[in-house]
Amino acid sequence: MSATRLDGIITRDEIFTDLAARVEKLKAAGIDPGLGTVLVGDDPGSRSYVKGKHADCAKIGVNSIRRDLPVDATTEQLNAAIDDLNADPACTGYIVQLPLPRHLDENAALERIDPDKDADGLHPINLGRLVLGEAATLPCTPRGVIHLLRRFDIPIDGARVTVIGRGVTIGRPIGLLLTRRSENATVTLCHTGTRDLAAETRRADIIVAAAGVGHLIKPDMVAPGATVVDVGVSRGQDGKLVGDVHPAVWEVAGAVSPNPGGVGPLTRAFLLVNIVERAEAQLAARGV
Ligand SMILES: Nc1nc2c(c(=O)[nH]1)N[C@@H](CN(C=O)c1ccc(C(=O)N[C@@H](CCC(=O)O)C(=O)O)cc1)CN2
Hints:
Belongs to the tetrahydrofolate dehydrogenase/cyclohydrolase family. It is a single chain. With about 290 residues, the protein is α/β, with parallel strands linked by helices. Helix content is about 40%, strand content about 15%. It has 2 domains: about 30-115, Leucine Dehydrogenase, chain A, domain 1 (Rossmann fold, 3-Layer(aba) Sandwich); about 140-265, NAD(P)-binding Rossmann-like Domain (Rossmann fold). It has helices at about 10-30, 45-60, 75-85, 105-110, 125-130, 140-150, 170-180, 195-200, 265-285, and strands at about 5, 35-40, 65-70, 95, 160-165, 185-190, 205-210, 225-230, 235, 240-245, 255. It has a 6-stranded parallel sheet with strand order 1-11-8-7-5-6. A 3-stranded parallel sheet has the order 3-2-4, sandwiched between helices. The longest helix is centred in the last third of the chain and has 23 residues, at about 265-285. The chain is globular, with a radius of gyration of 19 Å. The ligand Nc1nc2c(c(=O)[nH]1)N[C@@H](CN(C=O)c1ccc(C(=O)N[C@@H](CCC(=O)O)C(=O)O)cc1)CN2 binds near residues 95, 97, 169, 267 and 268.
């Protein structure tokens, strides 16, 4: 048995086609959406993700605003870049690329973002709105995971979902999203304190692996026919990127998202969905 491929590239392309048409309509109505990024330092991974985000902007007609700071940037310099984007009318929304260098406080940076411009949905107000069930900008990777499952007709309502990883960009918010009435899943959130990870994954209809531990999920940890979403990335000894899911899982699972080529492209796509939705809300507020 070989699993169905939950293809993030095809899915991303579909989203971009839809977004490009929506951006055209916004521009015709006088709204010109812009995505901002704040990048601190020269981590090759972060640089490449930011470059990719701006390349995506060009594909769908969204303007790009970049604020790149040196690795030894001070808190004051970072705050100034954030304040600058908060005040810039050309910037519909923006992100601070994570992780920041260790001397900078990530939570303080996220809290300084104007919640109405928080394109990542990681500001405490947006996360709080999500907890309260209010309308909020939603975090991009969890949105991408849910979209991918729906796109490939994987049943979510009533499903037992085991999430591995409790990070703020994926693990914690995906639990909140999947337990909304609209998704209605039963979620178990596992982490380094989980006693028997294999027991938790074996009883899952859907596994979302976001631990960042290469090949953590082995075939004997997966129920036959289950869906496995591979979100985590780490670097192997040869320096190459490795996902959380062992390749042999494809022989046991019913559906697997490849990594690369699964959730990653959707993280980028949903950033632009958030920007376009924000611009559409501005248009609606004008009463057009
Ligand atoms: N402010 C944020 N920082 C970070 C986030 C985030 O959502 N907001 N997530 C990650 C990095 N990230 C986006 O920023 C991201 C990671 C991976 C991909 C992606 O498309 N990966 C490709 C493979 C890329 C490669 O080969 O190098 C894939 O999965 O196919 C996009 C975005 C941490 N920081």
